[in-house]
Amino acid sequence: MLQGTGKIGSGDIVREMDKPTSMMKLNKRYNAATGMIEVLIDDVWTPCNPCSQNLPQTNPPHRYTDFYNYNHHAGSVSSITISGDDAVDSGQSVTYTATLSGDNTTGAIITWYKFDNGSWSASLGTGTSKTITWVKPINGLVRVVVTGLCNGEVKETTIPITWNCTPPSSAGYIYQASANEYKNAQLTYYLLDADGSNTNRVVTWEATNGTTIITHTDTSVTVLFSNLGLTRIRAIITNYCGSHQTDIFVTVINNPNPTVGNTAWSGTKTKNDCTTGNGTAVSLSIGANVFYGMDLAEANAARDAWLQQQANAQGQCTTEFQSDPFSGQIQKNDCTTGTGSWVSLNASAGQFTSTVSVADANTQRDAWLQAQANAQGTCGSDPTPTCDINFSISIYWLDANTPVLKTKFNGNTPAGSFNLSSSQINIINPNYSYTLNEEKETLIAFQGGTNASNMGTTVAVTFSSAVNPGCSFTASCVVPIIAVGCTPPMSFNNAYIAGAISYSGGSVSQTIINNNSLTLKVRHEVESFIVTRTIGANAQQTVSFPNFVSVGKKVLHTVYLEGHDSCADSFELTVIS
Known about the structure:
With 577 residues, this protein is mainly beta. Helices cover 7% and strands 46% of the residues. It has a 5-stranded antiparallel sheet, with no helix packed on it.
């Protein structure tokens, strides 16, 4: 039998009396640190199963029996109590504590679980307390499971959790620190509501009237106003228990001040104000916020206008002259024996260009035509082509000082280019290549006399082939009087001199001098006074005005050719003392 009190504590020693079958004396003790019964075998404390009826055998074998009355303090749990908040909301964190009752529960292992958002969790860990964060505790539960008992028991208990689900508060509102709701402006609006600290809420934003949502969070939204008029901005607040929306209405207007700056730009702009030729490209750059407008488009338009001004100021105009068209025959001229054949060829207008002159462009064209004729023609005894020319000319006035010769070629085109010549006029551009029924124009200057003295005279012009001098034709025309050329109206600046209008002795007078070989009409207008006078060729006339025309009055003069009222020029003079 066992010798002892029937119940032992940690470190207590129990001695077994000698038995008839065993002369061994056995000492045992309970180790609270490990929860195990240890026996003293050969001076060594050896652990054994404290709940077993049989102990390990030694060598030589010893038999240990009658352990039924051996009842140690470890391994008995009679109840489990869980304490902590059992009414929670989503996102709430609660610390729960498990309290065990029973015989010596020191070695017990407590494992925690929760039922949340419709399912059991995996183990949340062990210990006498655990902090649990709830997501959506519908029918929530907290469970603890106790293991590690010496008798192999597993104890557990569960407590229910109530979900205190609170819908979003309707006390929220949207505000904006600045009240400048201008078109094309970006503004940030803020949400203030009673649930601002609830991490489980979600806020979505809406905007009307074409307004763009740039960025947003649960507490703010940044929008871009694109259209004028009434605009609604709405925040929709949602959690597990419901939703609530709050609105703000604003009226978008035009910004009364140009406060939107341009964006930076860097690149090339091409000069675009060349009257002839093409503009060069200029490298330019400009920083942001140099020009301002009511919106970004207006600010950038001002920026671009400035860039174009800079390109026009810094760029260069490259003059480009284009060759005239050609349609005719060119003779092969590289035959070593025999005569080259005539080849019909064509060249389009502008097929060749030059930065020097049209003549230079035509020289390139002619060289190309000759190369084509040499490549396509043959060497033999071909007859010279016939010369069938119908050539006409006319002269008109571009203005009072600029006569223009107009020529037209009809008939079969002889070989090569053609020249214009005259003993009466200097022809500025005498070299031509013609196509059928084509008209050409060139400036001329009279070799003798003035422009006025040559009006009404007959001018003759000879049209001849450069490669076939025998092929020529002379045409003539009459130089018209200057009135014929009044489209557009001629300038009279050199046709008359208007002296100053002077005030002397209580009257106003003016001398008009006509330097033209034609008769002029002059109309004077001052307030309600209108008078028209005729001034003969190369004459002058003094004009007097009524007494109400005094110093400082303005007199409008209109000068025109007699019989040609549409060909006129006007100027205004002020009466001086």
